Amino acid sequence: MEKLLDKWVNQTNWNENIASALATFCKLENLEISKKTIFENYIGGEKMANFSEVSRFCTEWGIDHIGLNFVKKHLDNQFLPAFVLMDKYHTVLVIKIKNDEVYFFDGVRGLIQESIDSFFERSMGHIVLVEVGNYKKEAYYQKHVKEENERIKKISDHFSVKIIDHFLTSEECDLLKEKGESLYVRSQVSASEGNGSEISSIRTSSSAFLVQKDSFFDDIRERAAQLINLNKERFESIQLTSYTKGQLYDAHSDAFADYDTDALKEGQRTDTVLVYLNDDYEGGGTFFPYLNKIIKAKKGRAVTWKSLDENGKIDPLGTHGGLPVMNGRKYICNLWARNTDQSNWK
Ligand SMILES: O=C(O)CCC(=O)C(=O)O
Fold first, then answer.
1. Is residue 289 lining ligand 1, measured as CB closer than 6 Å?
2. pLDDT for res 120
3. Which ligand 1 atom minimizes the distance to the CA of 320?
4. Which of 65, 159, 188, 343 is 20 to 30 A from 11 in CA distance terms?
5. Which pLDDT value is given to residue 87?
6. Which residues face 335 on adjacent strands?
7. Do domains 2-157 and 160-338 have the same CATH topology?
8. Can you give the pLDDT at residue 298?
């Protein structure tokens, strides 16, 4: 098995997506499963790849697998490869452990290496082992999937992401793109110390800030305000974001964390209206890890949700991100509303 995995690691082009990696793995295991099937079942469609999805494709495709409560001793090459549920929202494929370093494949970022201790800290305590020979199967897994499905159902009863097609016309999308084209700079995120913003690998796109006075921008903010029944003055100036191949925005909330005192001086973000300005690219869906949902772009489509819960605290259910673009260039427009008047602040 160790040899097999070495071969797999060396053969796989890590710049390719997880579907390629899984297809390669299956091939080495003499399982003839096409990349297309894997893509459609594992990372395609409207659902996030998660723990229950991994199990489903294992079952359907006859891959022997078990799920069990994850303890550190499982991070041992004899149990690998294994899918491990991480970060509460996504599954990674652990392929190798060497010198206390874990090598795993993340569907978003490709091959990653991390110390065994920090990897273990981050993992959720659930694991799916694939092709583990005589290892004793446990009933734990089924129980987990049931709980996971119930959890998702409960969530969707009280949190909604609304999709509104034709929020902008195709011509309006093109015009917005054109107005931003010369203004792009590398996107930033709030600095971890709470003062200002910084460049980060969690957000690798470019942003354009449309701060100039323009009746077209005003009209769009007005439309967004009507859409979610808020006063137009609560919207920040429009921001465009563009992603080229490989660029992404990891899971995050649009609301500011308590430590982000600089940003909070101008008010807390409460609502997002995100508009897709084009759809002629591959990948790049907007994912909501806790909702198990990926929204696909459609030119002119708006997506809206709230970032705070009924107590004014950041709602983890509003956590979202932009998956990496596989091909082409993605453009979106962000309209963020705060809990204070934004008309004197850009
Ligand atoms: O690009 C996307 O689909 C999501 C963008 C996003 O999460 C953001 O700009 O806050």
1. no
2. 73
3. 7
4. 65
5. 53
6. 273
7. no
8. 94
Amino acid 15 reads N
- List of residues 6+ apart from 281 with CB closer than 8 A: 297, 325, 326, 327, 328, 329, 330
Residue-level pLDDT at 99: 81
- The confidence score (pLDDT) of residue 72 equals 55
pLDDT of residue 178: 97
> Using a 6 Å cutoff on CB, does residue 254 contact ligand 1?
yes
Instruction: Give the pLDDT confidence score for residue 141 in this predicted structure.
Output: 39
322 alpha carbon – ligand 1 mean position (Å): 5
Q: Which CATH class is domain 160-338?
A: mainly beta
Ligand 1 pocket test: which of 188, 241, 294 has the largest number of ligand atoms within 8 Å of its C-beta? 241
* Protein residue with least CA distance to atom 10, ligand 1: 254
For residue 303, give every residue at least 6 positions away whose Cβ sits within 8 Å of its Cβ, in sequence order, or none.
Answer: 161, 162, 163, 164, 272, 273, 274, 275, 276, 286, 295
Domain edges within the chain: 2-157, 160-338
| Domain 2-157 CATH assignment equals 3.40.50.300 | no
Which ligand 1 atom lies nearest to the CA of residue 276?
Answer: 3
Query: How far is residue 255's CA from residue 260's CA, in Å, rounded to a whole number?
Result: 10
Three-state SS at 299 = coil
Give the C-alpha separation, 87 to 251, whole Å: 10
Q: Cα of 225 to ligand 1 centre, how many Å?
A: 19
pLDDT, block means (10 residues), the chain with 346 residues: 44 44 50 45 41 52 51 57 61 75 68 79 58 38 50 69 95 97 94 78 92 94 95 96 90 88 92 98 83 85 94 88 88 97 76
State if residue 205 touches ligand 1 by the CB under 6 angstroms criterion.
Answer: no
The letter for the amino acid at 191 is A
Alpha carbon of residue 82 to chain centroid: 21
Rounded distance between C-alpha atoms, residue 252 and residue 338, angstroms: 17
* Residue of the CA atom closest to atom 7 of ligand 1: 321
